[in-house]
Amino acid sequence: EIYRYTRDALEIHMTYRGKHVVIFGVHFKAKLDPDDPEKRLAEAQHVRALADNTLQNYPTAYVWILGDFNDDEGTPPVNAVQKGRNGPNFVDAMMSLSAGDRYSYIYSGDKILIDHLFASPNAAARLQSGTVKIDHTSSVPSDHDPIAATYLVP
Asked: What is the pLDDT of residues 95-118, one digit of tens each?
């Protein structure tokens, strides 16, 4: 079956301090009206293939895949972004938070993490200790709590 993104992935390439920096912003298919986990998986596999292609062409690039995955840790779409098929494992900064703080959405009383911030290994190594946050008190007009982390690109 051929899938098209529900919302296309945003791909940004830039040079910062002489380093190639790439950000993929995603908003995968929602679980509602109707749920289509195979489409979310296809979206995840495709964006990870784009990231792997970037690393193949720019091996020292700092690469991030972030946004609303509409899936929790350990699910096939999240695993597809983390592990990929042809590249290194990416690291989700949100996993550095305690289990009690690791949620960005509440559905039917369940606290789940459906927003993620994955980094290529060299980018993940630049994560600044203590900067990973999910703001559970935010007044931002969204049904998700904002996530954030600080990375230093040398």
From this structure: 999 999 999 999 899 999 999 999
